[in-house]
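Q: Here's a chain of 71 amino acids. Please give me its 3D structure as tokens.
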Amino acid sequence: YVPSVGNFMLINVACDAQAVFAELLKRGLIVRAFGGELATYIRVSTGLPEQNERFVAALEEVLSLEPAALA
């Protein structure tokens, strides 16, 4: 991730951020995906502990998918 002083984190997901965004959206989670030099980054706002735990679990699930599933 990129260090931040705001209430969000910029996370390098090391794959197509738009695809990760789409998969997280299917799971009811909204993040921001970027393009260009940040095409592998998502921006995530911090939430309550339960929300953060739900996000981490969903992100782990999405990132464990086969690369073809993220296309």
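Q: Can you summarize the key feature?
A: Residues 1 and 11 are 4 Å apart (CA to CA).
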